[in-house]
Every structure is written in C-alpha cells, then in structure tokens.
Amino acid sequence: MNSSTLTSLLRYTVSILIVCVFIFPIAWFALTSIKPISAVFNKDRVVVFDFEPTFENYEVTVLGGKKADTSQGASIGMGTSGAGAYDGRGSILSSLIIAVCSTALATVISLLAAYALSRMRFRGSQGYMQWILSQRFLPPIAIIIPLVFIFRDLGLRDTHLGLIIAHTLINIPIALLILKSFFDDVPLEVDQAAMIDGATRFQCFYLIVLPMIKGGIAATAVLCFIFSWTEFILSVFLTNSIRTVPVKITTFVTSTGSEWGYISALGTAAIIPGFIFILLVQNHLVRGLTMGAIKD
Amino acid sequence: MASVNIENLDKKYGALSVLHSLNLTVADGKFVVLLGPSGCGKSTLLRMIAGLESISAGEVQFDGVRVNEVHAKDRNIAMVFQNYALYAHMSVRKNMAFSMRLRKVDKKVINEKVEWAASILGLDSYLDRLPKELSGGQRQRVAMGRAIVRDPDVFLFDEPLSNLDAKLRVQMRTEIKELHQRLKTTTIYVTHDQIEAMTMADEVVIMRDGYIEQSGSPMMIYDNPNNLFVAQFIGSPGMNVLRCTVVEQDGRLLAQHEDQILALPADANVTAGQVIYYGIRPEHLEPVKLGEGEGAVGGAQAHIRVVEPTGPEIHLYASLAGQEICCISRTRTQWQPDEPIVVTPDLEHVHLFDVETENAITPNH
C-alpha cells in the first residue's frame, strides 16, 4: 500500500469518525422518537435497535392524536395536563409563521441597510456598523425584562407579530454584517457602469447588485431562519398561549416526569422544516456568483 | 457626438487638492488620451467628466453646455472600466442590452444593435454566454460592446487594457483605434502606458500631480517636450538625460558631463558656465566602436554594459562617465559588453532643460 492510498484511507476514517460524533445525538434522538416507552426506560440494558418501532409519539405530537387513544404499554405514570397538551401542530405552525416572517423582514431590512453602508459615505458611517453590532453584544436574557414591559405596553406580548419583531431585532445585526461583506465584494465600478447605462440608484441595487449576491442572501436567510426556529429565551418570556416548538417541547417536562418519547418525536419533526428550507435555498448557496464581473 | 470642454476644474478631497484648475478642450470626434503616472489625477478627471465624482470648482461642458449638475445616467456617455465591471449574472447579450432595456427601446431595435455590436467586436458566437465563461480579452470586448450600443456622445475609457496580456493589449489597441475611426465618437482615454497614448491618440494630454504638463499631437510632444518630465515620460527606451556644464572651447560652446564633452546645437540659448540637463533620445545617439569612427566631433566615450537586440535594431545600454545611457544601433555590428564606444548626438534633436525649472530651453532663432 503506497503512502497516498494510506493518507486517503486515514482521511476517510477520520472524516467518518467526525461525522459519527456529530450525527450521534441526532440519530439517537430520532431513534428514541420511535421507541416504545419500555425501550426508552429499560433499567437493565441500553436498548439500541432491538425494539418494536412505534409511531405513536408522532401521532400524538405531530398528527394530533390523543394520548389516551394510544396504547401506551406500561404507563409509567406521566401526568397530563388535559387533552391536546402534547399536540405540537399549533407550535409548528407558529414557529413557521414567526421564522419565515422574521427571516424575510430581517433579510429585507438588512439588504437595504447593508447596501447603503457598503456604497454610501455619510457622517458616522464608520461607527454605525459597530453600533449596530453592539446590539448583539448583550445576551438576549439581559434585555428580556425591559422587552417584556415594552411589548406589554404596546400590546405585542403573546402575539405572533411581537415575536416576529423580537426575532427580527436580534437577527438584523448579524444579517447586516454578513450582507455588507457580500456587497463589499461587488466592485463599485459595477454600480457605476449601471448608472452610466442609465440606471437609477434603486435599479442598480435591484437589477444589478442584488442578483450578484444571491448566494449571500440565501446564506443569510438560512442563518436567520435557524436562529428564529431554535430561539427559546425570547419566545418563552414574550408568549403565553403561542408556543413555538422549542418552548412547546419544554412543557413536555412536567412535574411528574419527562415525556422523552414526545420530546424526541417533536424535536425530530422540528428538524424537518429547517431542512426543507435549506434544501430550497441551497441551489443559491454557491460562491462565485460575481465571477466574471471583473478581471480577477 | 459632442465636444468636451473643461474650465478651471478643481477637485478637492477635504483639504487635499488633487486637480488644480485644469483647462482642456476635446474637439468633437477627437481621440484624446490622458497620460500620466499613477496618482496624477487622470482617472479622477475622467470620472468627473463621467459624473461619478463631484466637481469642487470649475465647469465641465458638453457642446458648450454646463453638465456639472447632470447625473451620470443623463450625460449620454459610455464608459469602459479597467476591471470591465460586467454584470456577472447576465449573458453577454443582456449585458449589452441593459442600457437600452432601461430606456425601453423596442426589442427588435435592441436585438439589431446588440448583433451589430457583436459582429464588430467578434462576439457573435458568445452572445448567450455568461461573463465568467469568457476570456479576459472577450470580457473587455463585452465592456466595449456595452458602450458602443449606446450611441453615446462621448466614450470614456479608464485604462481598459491594463489587465490584458501584452499581445492582446496590442491587438485591442488596434481594435479600439479602428472602432474610433469607424464611429468617430469623441473619445477620452486614460492610460499610464505611453505607447498606448502615442499609438492611439489624436491628442495626448500629459498630467502630473494634478496639473496638465503638456498637450498636443503625439509626435509634436515627442519632438518638442515642454519640460524634463514630459521628455522622460514619453518615448521608450526613455530619453537620455545628462547633467552638464556649458564650457567654451575655441570659441564654441560645448556641454561637459564629468570628463566627457558633447557638442551643443549652434542655436542653443545657453552661456558658458551654465548648468543644464542635456537630453537626447536613444535613436539620436549614434554609437560607433572606439577607434572605428573618424573621431566624430562632439562624441563622448562610453562602455557597453548590456546589448539588447530587438530585431530591427539593437539597444545598447552603456555607461557614460558613470551615467547610464541608451543608444540604438541600426547596423548589424557585433557589439560586445564592456566594449568602449563613442556615441555621437544628432544635434538636430538635442533637448536642453534648465536645471532649476526643468523647463525646456528654447533655442535662439
């Protein structure tokens, strides 16, 4: 065996090991979601594959089945707080509405701001970026109390709109930072060429520069979406009846026990929308869209 | 088409002044080249004409009409940038059609124009490709195509060839000149390459540090440089310049550089004892091997350092009393490094400059 084969063999081995480490929690989580409760809580040994797969956890959390209707096997005495307490459909819908809207809002606002910051010089434009970024220096928990009061007074507490605004607020600085660097990559001469061709400033932005940074916009949108989809602290404090998925899942940990089956089922299901979203935009997630504009 | 007039144009960035009260007239249909070293303000001037830079003071006029306040998009100019600045997400066809699309030109007309430009530039078979699928030269042609479909009043070129390799540059140079002869659109072209300037221009404008040093036809500037800077900037290999003292021998004025004596033109406006710069272009400095010439009058001794045959001629780099000089031999003599030679200036083409002002010393008539 020559050294290059050995190197590539080693490389593959290490890659596979790393992938295993990262995939293990998700795989275990997904596996738990289809285990009957007896397999989850087996005191004698760890049950890996030797169990009867069941989809009742999904039926209850994602399809709206009643817990009482399903044959739970040996009940380990989980208390329930009323019918539909484990129905995650409303949460998934709320999470989707909030994530999609806040992603769209944050991306659009950041695009306009980033273009201006990248292309225009105005008094204070240097410090402006730092100031906006400083909004992210504080952990959300530090701003949560004032935010709760402000939202209460504005009537935004426990509304979709409220949470959309809160998530947008948190997403804008990071989206702005990323998008500005993509705009900076497009040479100024491209704008100027378009202007000489007769384009207005907005036409430059919309017809020329925007399509050239499609990849950057897609990447930013993915990040915003993931943030909003997984965000917990703001959601838990700013809402009561609207429950986003992460908040909903925590309610499965009750005073009488934790519903691991439901937690893992809803958690696994919650990965799917994010996954679909990334699949949809991944075609645009390619670098080098500005290639060819200039001589590199 | 339009004439371009620049009157007392100033450009300041805060306290920093980069252009100082420039005056320039570009007649309708002319090809004018702004030439100068980097940082001389030539690109800034071009961008002010384009409307991409604000004007601190003075006026830019098209056909006598002030355009200072007219937005770039309304000046009816076309500009080709150094880095091409193509729209990377659009095909060649769409790149060229963009300006007409914005002006809502009829689709049929757009197609005709694009195909006309493509045929002139040899881009017919590339119309549906993206810029990234083209070579550097083809991209440069697309940038030019985008400019010519506009039917602009003025063409502006900002060092369009500096990113191309040497061979392509020569080819594109000819193409741009041909294009100008065909379209006869007023053209302002910025470059730091004096050969580009010499070969393409109807008129060359030489700039330094925000001032216009000299303007005129290429040959006029080549033959009659106003000052030392222009003399040394134009021409390749550059003009030889020797710091000399004027001495009088047997009633004749001669120029002495260290221990070497060079003849002065009879009409030289200098006096004995005066220190001057003695300028002579390589092709006007004739080399002969030491001892082979008939002891030419006014020749100086030098030692060959490097011999560079170029084909039609041989460039000799030699040391004349410690000063590097270049002379050109058009004979097939076997020159050897370290060989002593005698160089004789052609007195018709000697340029003298004042050491203080560096301005040309005009001869007595």
Looking at the overall shape, the CATH architecture of the largest domain in chain A is Orthogonal Bundle
The neighbouring-strand order within the major sheet of chain B is: 6-7-8-3-9-10
Order of helices and strands of chain B: EEEHEEEHHHEHEHEEHHEEEEEEEEEE
Kindly provide the radius of gyration of chain B, computed on alpha-carbon positions and rounded to a whole number of angstroms.
25 Å
CATH 2nd-level architecture of the largest domain in chain B: 3-Layer(aba) Sandwich
How many helical stretches of chain B?
8
The CATH topology of the largest domain in chain A turns out to be MetI-like fold
Which residue ranges of chain B are poorly predicted, with pLDDT under 50 across at least 5 consecutive positions?
Answer: none
Overall structural class of chain A, as computed from helix and strand content, comes to mainly alpha
Spatial shape of chain B: elongated
Distance between the termini of chain B: 42 Å
Average pLDDT over all residues of chain B: 92
Which residue ranges of chain A are poorly predicted, with pLDDT under 50 across at least 5 consecutive positions? 68-81
Q: Helix count of chain A?
A: 13
CATH class of the largest domain in chain B: Alpha Beta
CATH topology of the largest domain in chain B: Rossmann fold
What is the end-to-end distance of chain A?
41 Å
